[in-house]
Amino acid sequence: SGDADFDFTMPAEDMTLIAVFGINVYTITAEPNDPAMGSVTGSGEYEHGVEVELTASPEPGYDFVEWTEDGNVVSDEPDYEFPAEENRELVANFALTTYTVTFNVMDDEGTLIWDAVVTFDGVENAPGDYMYDNIIGGTYDYDVQKDGFFPVASTLVVDDNVTEEVVLASDGTNVADIYGSGLSVYPNPAGDRVFVNYHKEILTIRVLDLLGGLVYDATVYDNHDEINTSGLKDGVYFIQVTTATGIKTERLSIVR
């Protein structure tokens, strides 16, 4: 009999029965979500307990994303290993390769500008938003503008994550420049405190680190302020002063 349960009538003589066992064999199926995006290896039949090794290989211009089974993610590594214990159907998911484009905007003295307007591939971000995600490789036009500076327009080749440095030259015809910067930050380098003076009313003062992280934020409504910097680590920061006519930024060094 080929059944595990075997019923029979005992004959009038002795009998010897042998139960024959064999190892289970499972079918492992692995396919790409789109054959144009990538391929997989490792599909086949495996005996119980044998290690299965699946490999997902993307085509140029695509990235491996994850392995799924019945719509559920089972691994985010292109090489997926597991023991054969049941029949399985897996899908290697690939997606078009995309990149992140970041702009660093500064003036011709090397001071970072935090509120310029960047337009990349026709998409204009809010002032100070210098990052574009999910960009497909290619060549793109961009321009950067800020009041009081000459705009910059150029092209950028994107074939990896890229940071583009843009230097804006001051427009000497700007009315506000007639009065000079008017912003005084001292002492600089500073220790545990720094003073900020301006010839107009200061609305807010912010201090940012080199990565653009906000470490100090205050509402002032006066033409001067004192900042307690005792809690800041030694290094380079940027003081951003907002007035009714615009924003001024100065570099600040803290050294103890």
Distance between the termini: 90 Å
Averaged pLDDT? 89
Number of strands: 20
Order of secondary-structure elements: EEEEEEEEEEEEEEEEEEEE
- Into which percentage range does the β-strand content fall? over 45%
Gyration radius, to the nearest Å? Answer: 33 Å
Low-confidence stretches: 173-180
Structural features:
256 residues; five-stranded mixed beta sheet; mainly beta
Structure description:
The chain has 256 residues and is mostly beta strands. 0% of the residues lie in helices and 57% in strands. The chain is built from no helices and 20 strands. It has strands at residues 25-32, 38-41, 44-47, 51-58, 62-69, 72-75, 79-83, 88-96, 98-107, 117-120, 123-124, 131-136, 138-145, 152-158, 162-168, 183-186, 193-208, 214-228, 235-243, 246-254. The strands form five sheets. A five-stranded mixed beta sheet has the order 3-1-8-5-6, with no helix packed on it. Strands 16, 17, 18, 19 and 20 form a five-stranded antiparallel beta sheet that branches. Strands 11-10-13-14 form a four-stranded antiparallel beta sheet, with no helix packed on it.
